[in-house]
Amino acid sequence: xxxxxxxxxxxxxxxxxxxxxxxxxxxxxxxxxxxxxxxxxxxxxxxxxxxxxxxxxxxxxxxxxxxxxxxxxxxxxxxxxxxxxxxxxxxxxxxxxxxxxxxxxxxxxxxxxxxxxxxxxxxxxxxxxxxxxxxxxxxxxxxxxxxxxxxxxxxxxxxxxxxxxxxxxxxxxxxxxxxxxxxxxx
Length: 186
Hints:
Layout: E1 6-11, H1 19-29, E2 33-38, H2 48-55, H3 74-80, E3 83-89, H4 91-99, H5 105-112, E4 117-121, H6 125-129, H7 131-142, E5 146-147, E6 151-154, E7 160-164, H8 168-180
Parallel strand pairs: 1-2, 1-3, 3-4, 4-5
Antiparallel strand pairs: 6-7
Helix pairs in contact: 1-2, 1-8, 3-5, 4-7
Protein name: Flavoprotein
Domain Flavoprotein: 5-177
């Protein structure tokens, strides 16, 4: 169901970024084309080399590739994709998406995307439950985005509660269901 689908995978700064490697592997194994876009802080948690090796494509993170003036066109990226998945999605990126802020390649691509967008948040339980974050989820849903709810369990802080990014297998299943028309995504 994901064969030949073009997937943008946005990876934000979060300890859950390590799960992006497995997510890329699963998507590629499903024969999807995967273009990874890292936020600046994401590379503190997972290297572009790891994700480029697994996706078999250069990882993007900046508008401009180098001093030559070659740039990564967010509009072309947004038009290229059949789906955009942001996993893990930080509270910061969720707020940018919900409020139309556009200060990095990922948020610019989001605003240019004409495809379905799936957001898999990852953050500590107090952040996840905060009324501002919940209001941003409501806004994103109102824009037609799909929130893949965070799971319950032990968090990096040592606390236990909702905030764990959905497992990569679950995210792939959500995408497969979407493209096959099975089930209703909320």
